Structure formats: C-alpha cells, structure tokens
Amino acid sequence: FRQDTLTICFMGDMMMHTNQLETAHREGQEYDFRSYFRLIEDRIKSADIAVANMEFTLAGEPYEGYPSFSAPDSYAQYLAACGFDVFLAANNHILDKGSEGASRTLDAYRELNWKHGVDYTGLAADMKDMERNCPLEIARKGIRVSFINMTYGTNLGATDKWPKVNYIGMKEMLERAFEKAQKESDVTIALPHWG
After folding, report:
1. What is the reported pTM?
2. Separation of alpha carbons 70 and 161, rounded Å
3. Span 130-153, mean pLDDT?
C-alpha cells in the first residue's frame, strides 16, 4: 500500500510590525512570542508539511516594523518550534536591509535547519544553495513535493550579486526549476509572492 495523501499547511505573511515587537518585548533583549500561535500550534504541528511566508528579515538590531522589517532571531526560532518545516524567503521585504540583511537572514535559516530541520526557499547564498533549494524538495510518507518560491519584486534592490532572490521575471532559472521538479517530484507547488 502506497501512501497517497499529505496534509500541507500554508500560512502567509508572517509579519513583525512595530506594535508586535513592542507587545512581545520583555526585559533586555528578550522577546516572548508564545501567545502568537498558541491556539493553532497543534494544527501546524499535525500537518505533514507546514510552510510559512517570512515577510521580514533577520538583519539584527535595531529591530523595526513597517516599512523596513528586521525581526529578532527568536521570532524565527519560535516559528520553527511551532512546527513549520519550510520558510519562504522570496517576498518584497527580504531585501529591506539590503544584501547584508538578507545574508544574515540566511545565516539564521541555516542554523535553524541544523537545529530544527526547517528548510527555506526563494533566497540563496550562492549557486550551490540555489541548486539545492530551487526547487526545494521535501519527502514525506514516500511522497516527494517540490516547492518553488518567487516574488514579483523587492522594495530595495540587491547591492551584491549574492545572496540572490528568486524573481518571477527570472524565466530561464524558473523553467529549469520546474523541469527538475517535474522529473524528480510527485507534486510541484508554485509559491509566487504577488505583493
């Protein structure tokens, strides 16, 4: 008997506005986000794959909300603890703190991958990273799912060649990703960030 059903939970636009930062702030550099998904954490954890659009950078202090987001690393750590398996990084806010902020975000995501098994797509540190995560393939219950994340644009442009964001207009790169996904996966899910 081959398993043919997966549950996938998608949650869009994880934000960190100024009032959210203020509400979660505790003494010193501590932030407490435990109330944010307390009522739905079981649903997130029960999904075979849980996916979150990370609509902020982890660029370090000073932490800021709209219009140029930088959230504490502990927010992404909390989301990993809630049971998310995939972080989507291709969105209009990923370059809010420039290439340096996106690089620091990738460093934090790699650490979360190592500690919690959370993966990411839509942003790559170099060509090897892009080949690994575009498409991002995840296998559960013997079913291979490929995720391809891209954005219509970013609020700021990149200042360096890498890290690179997946843009909807990167036709050749996305065609290769879809071809690879169709060959290697049972299901391909496109995750465009429209704005």
Report:
1. 0.96
2. 21
3. 97
